[in-house]
Amino acid sequence: MIGLFGGAFDPPHNGHVALLAAAREAFGLEDVVVVVAAAPGHKQVSLPAATRLDLARAAFPGETIVLDDHPRTIDAVRAHPEWKGAIFLVGADEFAGFLEWKEPDELLRRVRLGVATRPGHPRERLDAVLAALEQPDRVVFFDLAPQQVASSGLRAALDRGDDVHDELPPGVWELIEREGLYGRVRSYTGSA
C-alpha cells in the first residue's frame, strides 16, 4: 500500500517524522510519497518551494519526495492517477477542518485518509466530521504519541535565535544553520 504525506513542511520537524513512522507501522506501508505543496492554498509559507523541498529531503531520507504545484489536495490527487487507492496521511487537527477542504467527499472516493490521533485530542470534533462525510469508512484512525511541536512555533523560535535542534531531524537543523534559514545567522562553512 502507498502512503501520501502532504504538507508545506515549513520546516519539517520531528512530529512529521513520528507521524510517518507511526503510519508506516499502522498500515504496513510499502512506499510513502512525501508531497511538498509548492503554494499551499490554505496557508502562507516562509520559504520558497525549492528550499522546503530540500528540507523535506533532509527530514525524510530514503523516501520519495515530490514538489506539487496544486494548491489543493484534490487537484494534486487528480493529477496523479497512480495515487488512486493510496492512504493520505493527516493529523487530527487537520482532519478537524477536513469539511472545509476542496471537495472532501471526492477526495475520499480517490484515496483513504489515515488520521493520526493522540491522547487528549477531543474525539467529538473528529466524530462530527465523520458524521458529515458520504463515506466515513474511508477514514482510518491510528495512534500517535503526543507531540508538542508545530512548524509555526518553530519558525517563531528560529526567528528569535532559539536553539530548537532537538525538535528537528538532524539534517533539517544542519540545513537551516548552514543556509541561514528562518532568520538564523548563516554558519561559516569555508576553510581558513
Give short descriptive properties of this protein:
8 helices; single chain; 192 residues; six-stranded parallel beta sheet; 6 strands; alpha/beta; Rossmann fold
Report strand %.
Answer: 15-25%
CATH level-1 class: Alpha Beta
Helix content: 25-40%
Q: Which sequence of strands runs across the widest sheet?
A: 3-2-1-4-5-6
**What would CATH call the homologous superfamily?**
HUPs
Identify low-pLDDT runs.
none
Give the C-alpha Rg: 17 Å
Q: Number of DSSP helices?
A: 8
Number of strands: 6
CATH topology: Rossmann fold
Mean pLDDT: 92
The figure for the number of domains is 1
Q: Give the terminus-to-terminus CA distance.
A: 51 Å
- Secondary structure class reads alpha/beta
CATH architecture: 3-Layer(aba) Sandwich
What does this structure look like?
It is a single chain. By secondary structure, the protein is α/β, with parallel strands linked by helices. It has one domain (2-149): Rossmann fold, CATH 3.40.50.620. It contains eight helices and six strands. It has a six-stranded parallel sheet. Helix 2 (49-59) packs antiparallel against helix 8 (170-179). The longest helix is centred in the first third of the chain and has 14 residues, at 14-27. The chain is globular, with a radius of gyration of 17 Å.
